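Feature request, filed as a ticket because there's no other form

It would be nice if the structure record came with a short human-readable summary line next to the tokens. Right now we just get the raw output. Example of a typical job, pasted below so the devs can see what we mean:
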Amino acid sequence: MSEDKAAQFEEADGLATIRLNHPALTVRVKEELLEAVNRAAESTTARAVLFLGSDKAFCVGQDLAEHAKSLEETSGAGALDTVREHYNPIVQGLERIQVPVVVGIGGACVGAGLGFALAADVRVAARRAKFGTAFTGIGLASDSGLAMRLVNSLGQARAMELMLLGTMLGAERALELGLITEVVDDRDWRTRAREIALRLASGPTAAYVAAKREVRAAAEGGREMAELLEEEADLQNQLGATADHVGAVKAFLEKRKPTFTGR
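Raw output as currently delivered:
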């Protein structure tokens, strides 16, 4: 694995890891990140995914120096084609990952970076981390699915505040509002995120996949309760036949800790 890659993918012991080594998104960074995300989505052996940024920042969105050069060269026409070419596919790739995704956030998480983080399932942040939208500050609306994620997470009024006023949130405030899962000391964010990801990678994978499916369906809205109840019943029937479920019930009755194999 090349150490100079802007984004890297690796997998071991059921845990796939995406490392974003450069917080500002140039074309090169976006292409390498998309490749890493797609490899995670296509893995048939990963039971959880860990998505890490650097100590300085998780992701601060578009590299504005490169963007300014593109604006100058194109007079603005096509300068934001990157949304369809890169940002949308990255988010769609994260959406295609069926197993749990844990994000470790060591610093700034802004713009598209916030959209990427909110596309995951569990978010662990360093106490120094900052969160914001940043788009309207440069005369743009949002991309990367951020508006929908913010409304689902915070409600319309708070989402509107973050989008229009560009309010920056510290980690503790983001935790209070429900944007992130956990805040830890600055030196511990990577270790804690990995700890949670490894725990999920050793858990009942089929149950996690089904739980993600149920939560996403509920968050999307527009579906009748009867339909959701029927889907839950189907999933429970499928899970009831798994070795993990049968073994866990037996372990409970025998007063011992279950061991999950992901089958």
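Something like this underneath would help us a lot:
The chain has two domains: 7-201, 205-253.
The CA atoms of residues 88 and 224 lie 28 Å apart.
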